[in-house]
User: Fold these one by one.
Assistant:
Number 1:
Amino acid sequence: MIDYNPKNWWKFIFYFHKSDTFSKLMPAMLGIAAYTAIFAYVENNILHYVPIRNPLTVHSLVGFVLSLLLVFRTNTAYDRWWEGRKIWGSFTNNSRNFALKLSTLLPEGHTSRETIRILIGNYLQATKDHLRGKAKVDHLTFTATYNEDYYKDHKHIPNRVAKALYTEIYKLHQEGLFNLEQFLALNNELSSFTDNLGACERIKNTPIPVSYNIFIKKIIFIYVFTMPITAVLEYKFWSIPIVTLVFYAFAGIEIMAEEIEEPFGTDANDLGLDNMVVNIKGNLLEIL
Amino acid sequence: MIDYNPKNWWKFIFYFHKSDTFSKLMPAMLGIAAYTAIFAYVENNILHYVPIRNPLTVHSLVGFVLSLLLVFRTNTAYDRWWEGRKIWGSFTNNSRNFALKLSTLLPEGHTSRETIRILIGNYLQATKDHLRGKAKVDHLTFTATYNEDYYKDHKHIPNRVAKALYTEIYKLHQEGLFNLEQFLALNNELSSFTDNLGACERIKNTPIPVSYNIFIKKIIFIYVFTMPITAVLEYKFWSIPIVTLVFYAFAGIEIMAEEIEEPFGTDANDLGLDNMVVNIKGNLLEIL
Amino acid sequence: MIDYNPKNWWKFIFYFHKSDTFSKLMPAMLGIAAYTAIFAYVENNILHYVPIRNPLTVHSLVGFVLSLLLVFRTNTAYDRWWEGRKIWGSFTNNSRNFALKLSTLLPEGHTSRETIRILIGNYLQATKDHLRGKAKVDHLTFTATYNEDYYKDHKHIPNRVAKALYTEIYKLHQEGLFNLEQFLALNNELSSFTDNLGACERIKNTPIPVSYNIFIKKIIFIYVFTMPITAVLEYKFWSIPIVTLVFYAFAGIEIMAEEIEEPFGTDANDLGLDNMVVNIKGNLLEIL
Amino acid sequence: MIDYNPKNWWKFIFYFHKSDTFSKLMPAMLGIAAYTAIFAYVENNILHYVPIRNPLTVHSLVGFVLSLLLVFRTNTAYDRWWEGRKIWGSFTNNSRNFALKLSTLLPEGHTSRETIRILIGNYLQATKDHLRGKAKVDHLTFTATYNEDYYKDHKHIPNRVAKALYTEIYKLHQEGLFNLEQFLALNNELSSFTDNLGACERIKNTPIPVSYNIFIKKIIFIYVFTMPITAVLEYKFWSIPIVTLVFYAFAGIEIMAEEIEEPFGTDANDLGLDNMVVNIKGNLLEIL
Amino acid sequence: MIDYNPKNWWKFIFYFHKSDTFSKLMPAMLGIAAYTAIFAYVENNILHYVPIRNPLTVHSLVGFVLSLLLVFRTNTAYDRWWEGRKIWGSFTNNSRNFALKLSTLLPEGHTSRETIRILIGNYLQATKDHLRGKAKVDHLTFTATYNEDYYKDHKHIPNRVAKALYTEIYKLHQEGLFNLEQFLALNNELSSFTDNLGACERIKNTPIPVSYNIFIKKIIFIYVFTMPITAVLEYKFWSIPIVTLVFYAFAGIEIMAEEIEEPFGTDANDLGLDNMVVNIKGNLLEIL
């Protein structure tokens, strides 16, 4: 995630970073400009077509419903992005609350304090990697019991860490350090971790229904590629920037929605998971 | 559900899978093209009508309110689809949490562990089949007690499985394996299963009010079938692709909404319940 | 509520059931057609007005804001309808859960089992009748204690049934059948019944603020009745179907919103409360 | 709040009650009609300007974004209104549940029953008055302990009543009538009263950010007052009703949003708090 | 936050406070007026271009999707603003409820009453300052134990205050003033403070994805700066106010969204945190 000052107009207007929508669409925009130029030349200079009235009436009709669909697309993508952000805010709060409860129940200096602190950190680290494709064992911190052997050859590393956490809590319960009610309460806290992971996986694995994706892309394509046919009669070579910028407006919204609908990656618009994991680990170190 | 890469533009623009909206609408689109062609020929070549100004003004007025209605339709359909997805995410979490609690309370090797694991799997299997029309007894796994005889001749198989689960929990409570509070807590977990099923049935059995369905279809019909009357005067034979594509834009949105508003089927856009049930059963096997 | 297959296009396009919006608006549509015909005849054939350019520009401006208001209206009406559906889903779940808890706590064959089963059924029956105007005592099932005399001469029958349920639970608590915590838990379950009833009454008794209702109807009226003034100059007698269908589009949306915003009646679009009450009573019979 | 039948079209179309939006805007509408008439006379009859093409293109561009802002305004205002309604529904339920719990815990005939019943009634009465400007001591019912002296010279009367309720509950706890858990549970119920009051105050004291209010009013003003400049060239004296009605459409939506965004007053669109308080007091009398 | 009467139309229409959107945009508006004037002079008086038909058709197409994006922007910004308001309403309620519970559990005159009251006040004070950039130690009230030394050299002052609160509660628990259940309940109340802080930080640190910010500003820029090219042909020097006001409408909505999306500052539209903190401190003084 890029941290930025939203009030800086000039910078943004003339900002052409490589991760910017404008830059991403540049090759396609050049292609469409060339395509429109050919139409403009052929219709005006070779075939000498005469202008028609209201050359864009039909595009106006369809542009309306396309705009509304793009806003629907943007809203659903943003909702996923914001839900992802809330889930990671919940990870932050839950890990701290879980640690605070344990720090009350466990005597100072008990060896499990460090183990559990490391395991929570591992859980979040593994979750982040898992959401970005594949959890990597060598990103984890090992303890005597939960070392490389414990993790390797397992597919779903976050669940493996969760199992270790459950085992530790169960062991402490067996040692009589907390009674059944407290044990079940801590179990519930752990459940909230796996529930959050489940919600992240839901966002990651359930994109918007494929029909909408196909439909929006098809309509944008038809819309932009039929526009020069009539537009060049009215606007001559001015239609080159016009069609290009209309394409930028519509395709840009779709591109941005694609970026944020899966918010756990490393794109400029994705959530800053790296920072969050580091912050949480720092918090845990203070508490446990 | 089809898993796909949402960023693949070219593939989607030229994608004509049989379950794609474009392919589904193809016969209707051909019909409308022919219908428009007849108008174009008759009005221009036989009757020699003269063009009118602003041939599509009225369609523009009505197209606006129709577009807004279609977005309303899309939003409500998507909300059902996403709610369905959340409910099945909740099934995943609840079944795992329920199993985890039991695995703590039941001694290792207790025979009820396997019975309950099988029953939870059956519950989800039966729910999936039930939501797709009819739960099938031969999709279930039988145990000594809950065998084919137990299920057959019952209409609502998921409720029958739930009853078996309640009975097992009650029996274990009678055996003194957990106290009243723990028994009631487990009962509450079971309630969440039946609540989820109730929510799925609500989505499945309560489509959008029939008036909206009729109204939207009527307006699309009137809109598209009156369009050639004036459009052919201005756009001549070009109105054939124009009217056809306007029909594609409006009817496509309605078709997609129809597909996702009942998300438990086996359409390309429906939720991947098959995979989810298999995954949950795998999780249970690890826990209990 | 009418159960229907949403994918049947042809049926809906040519469907003119008496409860259909089209049929309901038919008399008004005929009136507007006649009104427009008079304008068309007078302005074109008697006064011989000349056409003006852009006859519908102002209607386009106002039509936009009117369309947005109608969508606002539709969204709020649909939210009530769907909230009503959720409340009745909650009635279904709560009555079953309440019965399940009691069936665990009460010994098999205890006389209160039947009494409470009948009272829950009565509660839902009375609630349904109450929401449809007036609860009728003769729709209830009587027991020895809670017979016709108990209910008659009371205005708010559902509350009267709730009082009977509270009395029964209190009596069982006095008999020592469950301890204070269990008693309070059951009390909470009963509260959820009365909370649901309160939510239904809120939906029923709080329509959209009257200003919006007046405003939307006034704007539709002005919009449609001023349209022929200029439209007949451009579209001649074609303006008769045009104005009529524009009226159908706008008034139809308002009519549908009126129907679903109060979802507890017996209209074609209202919720199927009759079936739900029957289903719940069937479920209770199995449990208690 | 006015209770009305939403399906009565003719009544609403010709309804000009003094609290109606149309009546409220009448003086402004007359002023705008006069203003437009002056333009029409000067430009057409004195200066003899010639018509321009597309006189309202710019108004169409701006009208679009203004309409969307007005719908945003309407949605947020309606959300407050509906949230206010839900809070008062919650007051109804909570006061009844609180009374029901106490009626179980307190022996029949205990003097605190009446005191607490009066205090709850006072709380809601004082809250209503407080939300309408200033809680009035003489609207309250006094008891021996909590008489006029207790309330006078205090600014925030609802909090003063809440303190009396807390004191009573604490006293009963000291008398040993309920144990610590029950005492804390009752405390939680009381918290929900003050939480609801806090939510009402939030709605009342936090209007939509002032910038939006200024912006919308400025845009409506500019929009309507610049409209005659070009409109009179095309529509001559017909522009008088046209501009007036466009003003009615836009300003009416803003006026209605202003009315409902603060839903606790005594306007025709505000919530019927008077009735609700009377109903709740009646319910309490039956229970305690 | 500015407190205002939303019904005062004339005041707002002619209100040009320095924090008003109109005043903020004034310099940019003057620049755009000059820019348009140059186009008008050059195209009409030097180059003598002839008018084209429909000069703003393309702007109408793009203006539509831009308007929808701006409403999306406004909705998300407003949601943050309102969520921020709810969180601070929750701070108010939680601090009062926490104080009320403690005042019941701690004997009158216990020294911890004052300490905890001061710490809660410090927490909210530090949170406010923290959200506005940097918590300042000299804004806090010191006690014997938690004096300047305790706070200085720590970055995250609110967490430092929270630690003090946890320590105090833990100490009182060790002294036997409340049992484990009550201790855990108080811990949960404290968690709600840190959860609220986390939610505030989420709103503050996670602006809308940067792509949207860049995209909207770019489109507004392109939209406004290309408008004079064709508009001056039709509207001559009238296009100066026209383009300027169109810029005001679009940029104004973006500017307002920027202001409210981060609602914890000291802008005219931001939440009145200063008053809230003072009010809460006053409430605490009455209770503890």
Number 2:
Amino acid sequence: MYKALVNVTLRKSILDPKGKAAREALHNLGYSTIEDVRIGKFIEINIKADSEKEAEAIARDACSKLLANQVMEDFTIQITKV
Amino acid sequence: MYKALVNVTLRKSILDPKGKAAREALHNLGYSTIEDVRIGKFIEINIKADSEKEAEAIARDACSKLLANQVMEDFTIQITKV
């Protein structure tokens, strides 16, 4: 069994209203040294596979097809054995 | 300038309807080897600080006060210099 840890982030050129709202709220709380906040998704996927390579291929495929919107988002995958 | 990379995850005992929906959708697409999906948040915070320690303290504080709901969520922070 493998666990894929996936970070999905909005592309740099895409506006991030959630992150902007969080930054404004933090400024209002007094955190003036926080310059920018961007909010993406963190996805943990448990995969039954024979090898790390196979697990990564499945995770990459699942992200491309469903979990990330590649027009607006990038993703990185890290595989660990569990 | 430092960048804090924060992973916010739902606690193990908390149901994750978004993750469950993603798992069902992946099963319907034929990914039967995917056993479990949990979806959390990935937050990037740019912080002006004099040291890594100070940046981490600010990030931890911001997460505790605003970005994570500690009743239901856990978070991990990783600091990098940018």
Number 3:
Amino acid sequence: MTNALPQGATIGILGGGQLGRMLSVAASRLGLKTHIFEPGANPPAGQVADAVTTAGYEDEAALKAFAASVDVITYEFENIPTAALDILESLRPVRPGREALRVSQDRITEKDFLTGLGLKTAPYAAVDDKVSLDDALQSVGTPGILKTRRFGYDGKGQSRIMAPEDADKALADMAGAPSVLEGFVNFSHEVSVIGARSADGQVACFDPGENVHRNGILHTTTIPARLNISQRTESVILAGQILNALDYVGVMGVELFVTPEGLIVNEIAPRVHNSGHWTQQGCTVDQFEQHIRAVAGWPLGDGSRYADVVMENLIGDDVDRIPQITMEPCSSIHLYGKAEAKPGRKMGHVNRVVK
Amino acid sequence: MTNALPQGATIGILGGGQLGRMLSVAASRLGLKTHIFEPGANPPAGQVADAVTTAGYEDEAALKAFAASVDVITYEFENIPTAALDILESLRPVRPGREALRVSQDRITEKDFLTGLGLKTAPYAAVDDKVSLDDALQSVGTPGILKTRRFGYDGKGQSRIMAPEDADKALADMAGAPSVLEGFVNFSHEVSVIGARSADGQVACFDPGENVHRNGILHTTTIPARLNISQRTESVILAGQILNALDYVGVMGVELFVTPEGLIVNEIAPRVHNSGHWTQQGCTVDQFEQHIRAVAGWPLGDGSRYADVVMENLIGDDVDRIPQITMEPCSSIHLYGKAEAKPGRKMGHVNRVVK
């Protein structure tokens, strides 16, 4: 732990949502403080952080003061503006690094990177206008899904093309944004691997979880996932390959489709991931602590699992069920401190331990 | 949950040490905020709290402003000055209530209360001076231990009397403070029960843990404790009896000596307890969340255990072992964010899950 942050050091976190909140709590377990940078007022993470800066990513003075007050910088979301990163990087280490952000901020760049590693992805083609969409429909075929190349999450910025006649509406849905047509993959289920890599190149992965989505948003993750031993091994090796190729430091979520032809990478997220929330109950070191350990230069923890868990997201008015959930046996509730429940908004999650 | 605190409500916590810190983190999991009141600057709990008041317990204005800013008040230590309590109680509910504090702040009052319930304690007698010490030595006998009636913790304010000739030194050690002579109990081991009682009188206890002390400070707690089924049942019934008799709301630690003649109550603590830290790894709801649930008027959680755990305290320069501990398999480290490691100071703990 020669270059490890000492007790009392401060981790700067870009983004003050639930991921930043749970990262902050994990940092506290290691005797580290956090400072949250977030444009929105009263961020959930601010309730459990040592300091909060409320400022926009274009506010150079605020970015500089924030960087000066912390020892290392990390983030809870990948869409950090490039200009802000330039300022922050010039003052403090930003982990995971620039390459991970560059690759994951753009769906085409990400897929080019993954196929370049020899990994399988859905068939894809860039779409910028009617002409390139026609070409893409030729090469990728239908059904497919048109997605904006950047800034998509939780099913936002996506439009299905079940047959060629849906193409015009889908293109209009993109509102002129550079896009990508992805072919449908015939998968039996989706799993995700939460992998981690330390500053000195150590790699560790949590057990893969099996994901079920509803309305484009993660609904449940179940551990263990339905995978045979070779799929399980392949999923972990593949995650390690991605982490090493990016010289990555921190936790990454890797979503995989399970198909008869093998594992296909759906997408990667250079941060702690919703499908890794189950680790809070099933492991002695959860994904949040694993991420903090990595960015703080600590050795990775033992993320081996000692319980079966089903994680369920609480979305929008699911929070009305809190009174019942609090009385359930063997369940651990995690609420994010958000003032208002809106449709599609992630308000919390429950980890149910299966004995 | 009719009278339960809603999402975003604030819990005031008196005391900003590690217990307040872990209570604050637990509150965040339930979507609740915390406000720490602590005389010392930069309290560990302040690093993960929504607000901190740095003021003394004699500062009426600060106490009033603190109370006005929170929905309910709880505490991490039992020695809260009475005048401060009077002010706080007049403005907001204080949980656990006054009776629990009155009983546990004085070793004689506590033992009178326990024996009044028909529970066994060590033989004891009040000691105020040489004359009453001689009487006490007659009735209690030697070996015994002379303790101040108030403000003792972690072996502080205690002096052993192995034979009558140690009496004068022991009395001098008390420096004139009202004291109690407790007879030695011939016990095989010590266990503790962490019990909880909700605002509507529901009672739940965690599995008893077995404690080992070093230099008067808790060293390890091992779950499960060595208890047969009738001792296990008795320990839980006895804790429930104490909680009900005090009309208690919150978590309480009950330390018990295991003897051939049955269970003997060593002492009770009206707060979360060091010997309950193992619950952070072995249960879906830990002692900190259980306490927050109770004081917030929520139903108690299911504290049933799904793993065996050994908790070890990190005292003073034990923190030098952190680099090794972070690399241990199946161990979860919890550090308190204290700036300086002093001899006897609790710096953190490790929960080792036994698979």
Number 4:
Amino acid sequence: MRAMKWVRQASTKCETIRHSTASVIRSLRKLTPTAFMTLRRAVAKVEHLGIMGQKLRLNDRELEANKMIMAVKKEEISKGILDPTKFTPGQHIFKTLTEIRKSPIFNLIKRMPKGGVLHAHDTALCSTEYLISLTYRENLWICTMDEGCKAIAFRFSKEKPTHKPMEKCNWEPMAEFRDRRGEDNVTRYFKRRFSMYPFSKFISNNQAWAHFMGIFILLDGLLCHAPVWADYYYNALKEFSEDGVQYLELRSLLPPLYCIDGDMLTIRDTVAIYQSELERFKADHPNFIDSKLIYAPLRGVEPSVVEQYVKTAVELNKEFPNFMVGFDLVGQEELGRPLKDFVEPLLKMPEHINFYFHAGETNWFGSPIDENLVDAILLGTKRIGHGFALTKHPMMMRLAKLLDIAIEVCPVSNQVLQLGVDYRNHPAALLLAAHVPVVISSDDPSFWRCAPLSHDFYFAFLGIAPMKADLRFLKSLAINSIRYSALAGEEKRVGYVKWQKLWDKWIEDVVEQKCSS
Amino acid sequence: MRAMKWVRQASTKCETIRHSTASVIRSLRKLTPTAFMTLRRAVAKVEHLGIMGQKLRLNDRELEANKMIMAVKKEEISKGILDPTKFTPGQHIFKTLTEIRKSPIFNLIKRMPKGGVLHAHDTALCSTEYLISLTYRENLWICTMDEGCKAIAFRFSKEKPTHKPMEKCNWEPMAEFRDRRGEDNVTRYFKRRFSMYPFSKFISNNQAWAHFMGIFILLDGLLCHAPVWADYYYNALKEFSEDGVQYLELRSLLPPLYCIDGDMLTIRDTVAIYQSELERFKADHPNFIDSKLIYAPLRGVEPSVVEQYVKTAVELNKEFPNFMVGFDLVGQEELGRPLKDFVEPLLKMPEHINFYFHAGETNWFGSPIDENLVDAILLGTKRIGHGFALTKHPMMMRLAKLLDIAIEVCPVSNQVLQLGVDYRNHPAALLLAAHVPVVISSDDPSFWRCAPLSHDFYFAFLGIAPMKADLRFLKSLAINSIRYSALAGEEKRVGYVKWQKLWDKWIEDVVEQKCSS
């Protein structure tokens, strides 16, 4: 009966509210159509100004470029409305990859200076072609099972490796394996094994993750050889740079690397190799801004291990203070442990080493993983990796906005790892509309055979953002990627200058129609 | 260069903000782990109180029932986390329909008194079995083409109908058609033609809509015969009532009906038939609350036609003031016309006839259709049909909350009409979190072979709401369906009393474990 009483009270109260508000809103019907349309336009204007970047002022050349960009965008969207099966952001990237290369919008974005990539994992950066080229290196062995049908591991060694990763697998020289199976077959096979293809159907994100982790494991012996590690990073910087990326913040497990004789280096050496390759790359490419490192070991561990992680982070930061600058934990959130299990060791991290936590990369609303968002923010994270679930937490969303915590949105990754299919339903649209800072990143472009950043920008522009989002939107994404980076003080100023130089050049190219194919 | 200056200014300003806010948030790292966990729990508590219905007080029996409900819910979710391919809200309803019938949560919800259905179309209410039973009625003719392989239309007539809906189709008596093709074959064929099955794959929502409209067209001659129209409605009320629904607000095109001799009745007669069937049903079923009508003609017309619609609405409301109470426009929003084309005639609607507009049933962000949301709200709509896109418009979302405009969320419909697949990504989760009023409806349950309302409640409870949403959530969905209905004053009070009576009984049944299968 208490409930009954409540219902009555609520009902009465509700009626009162409805009565008063209804009288306000209904009175709009007394407007003349002209007055209504004026009000309507005012609302549209306010909504329009809410689109990210709309308050940016464009110069004359940018305005001209904008017209051309919006003309092609409009065409691509009109086609999609007529026949949504032709609209690539409504479909799985694995089905549309070839199609997208023909898109004028994609080709414009490809050449656009997009600033930096702030969310990417260090062994999932390079193109499949580059990975395959690595398998031609000398002294490479492959361990296979099922009569050589299934590759299990790689290893560089002068002699046949002694340790078997699995009981049933056998080592043979890579060159022999290639001869025996036929070069074309092997290339085709590796193309598949080094990526998430062809799984475009919705299965479940656990299955997708199992496959995903399998690629990391397979690549381990190929990439963790010291000289290859160095070359892979240099090549990644090159590929990113060619895709209009001038800055890269990479997350790394920082594995110890091995030498050709089997000797193991230390984690410190892993970082040192990165640092020296970076210097070499910057010397060769003066337009490139910089690269920095976030130490991001696996989350599926005991709290005591995280305590050790924190110590390692402190030591590395002491030796590489401008390069190794942040900390995160990685691995599928659902199967790892929630951040709150690690609060005690994490609170020991000195304040000058920033957190950049993965959080809320899930669609389980109200799960401990979903709640990682709360812990990440309360622990003072500078950015949030993915934050796919953030929009379900209005209070956390307000905090992110207030505390200027940028959300690292990785559209293609979310699709491939089965969080959603249609980019038009991606929750980042709501972050944009609510003015939560957003940067667009690519996570693991190697595994989905995507460009280092262009595909993610393409989907953000065409699929996630409102139709009217224009050059201002693209420009503010680029600016955000520098603003929310770990670049500090003078570094950031230099970053903006280097980006602006390429930006101005690109605007000229667009206006001169040099970018459309 | 102006842009460059802007970048510098923004950068400096941004640095200042980041510096001040960062010092607030980072200081959390100085907390002891115990203090952190206290803060963390406080945040969790606030988030928990944000779940719809959490402020409801349950009586002792309800608390007991809640424990049992949450135990089975937890089990179903745990299974899903272990193996997401087993989690029905992550998949398409057409693949899981049989599975769901076995779900203990579904069976609890099935018997739960769920209040009213506020969003449903009058020719898509009844079960497929009932539709098939109608095809056994006397004097029914079927028009088929492709050697009788494809049904085009139905018609009740003493003699062979003269008008052909398509050049190439031929009329024959239904009984002959059934004999010729074999009863089982015909039943199987109608089961498919009367529903959206088997299209569970993501195609595009245009294709889904084309198929969907095709069912309405096929059913036209079967249902628009005056006696069948009456029986169909009576049967719908019966099926809804058996599914725990005590109130039905139906949207209707109000087609003129035909008699066996081909004579046509008027729209006024269509409403009169409804009203008299309703009285008959209420006399037979004293627990049933009521049913009301929203006149909802097609939106793909000229503004002058809408002017006529408004006049018709006014006339009907004059004759049936407690039954025909509202107005809407229907048909695929993308292919129809936006509300703003009809502002002039719509503003002529007298204030006592409420608008209940479909709006934002789209994932095209920033399209004119998406913007129907703005017009619907500015025109003073009492509720919004679907509002799938509302979360992309924070200002409109705030207005909906402030003006107490309920969103009629139809989960299964949104999935079948291809707006999204995974219920865990349904935007209604965000409406719930932001305290925008929500009611759950079923739209066209006939076409997806779903229960009148139980499946939609099931997905709302298990897929859309946060994991911790419990009996309080379900109870407030039921209460909302009465609160936001077109029931007025004393009608509403009586409605609550009738619902509460069945609710108390159901709670007892749950506690006594009479509901679990």
